[in-house]
């Protein structure tokens, strides 16, 4: 398997309560791996925060929670901690949602815009459980992010 040209791997880091965003993360990671690059997949609670420096591409996943917001106890504090370290990196966003209109993702994209990171495409949103078409979209998203 070929590593990224600069030998920096891609991290996929997610928070998920009922596994919908977790499934998205796994499929995005599979898509990255299909290109011959290597995704390191982390549940956010297992991500050693100082390792953010090791990655030049980071895919971040969090569902819409708590009133069109990032999950506040674990993911939001994590994101606040890495926000100042994303400058120059390539970032992709994804997550599952329920009844909203995607406002959490638009707000999150805006925040990325203020970090100096390069945002890949629009954040990938899937309503609740990712069905076959949703899973396929995640694999394709991962493939495209790998070559971004
Ligand atoms: C406490 C709580 C708050 C939520 N708030 C929102 C919300 O504001 N907007 C929305 O679209 N969905 C909301 N949802 C629905 C979740 O985003 C949705 O169920 C998603 O699929 C959960 O992803 P997960 O399985 O990765 O945890 C909420 C769910 C929970 C449990």
From TrEMBL:
InterPro entries, A to Z: Flav_short, Flavodoxin/NO_synth, Flavoprotein-like_sf
SUPFAM superfamilies (UniProt xref): Flavoproteins
Gene3D superfamilies: 3.40.50.360
Pfam families: Flavodoxin_1 (PF00258)
Summary of the function given for this chain in its UniProt record: Low-potential electron donor to a number of redox enzymes.
Family designation: Belongs to the flavodoxin family.
Protein name: Flavodoxin
Annotated source species: Eubacterium callanderi
Lineage: Bacteria, Bacillati, Bacillota, Clostridia, Eubacteriales
């Amino acid at each position: 398997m070929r590593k990224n040209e600069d030998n920096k791997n891609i991290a996929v880091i997610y928070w998920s309560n009922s596994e919908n965003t977790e499934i998205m993360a796994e499929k995005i990671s599979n898509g990255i791996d299909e290109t011959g690059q290597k995704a390191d997949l982390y549940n956010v609670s297992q991500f050693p925060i100082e390792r953010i420096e090791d990655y030049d591409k980071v895919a971040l996943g969090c569902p819409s929670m708590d009133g069109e917001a990032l999950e506040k106890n674990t993911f939001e504090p994590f994101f606040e901690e890495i926000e100042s370290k994303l400058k120059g990196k390539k970032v992709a966003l994804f997550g599952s949602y329920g009844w909203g209109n995607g406002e959490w993702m638009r707000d999150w994209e805006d925040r990325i815009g203020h970090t100096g990171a390069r945002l890949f495409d629009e954040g990938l949103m899937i309503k609740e459980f990712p069905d076959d078409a949703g899973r396929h979209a995640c694999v394709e998203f991962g493939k495209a992010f790998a070559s971004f």
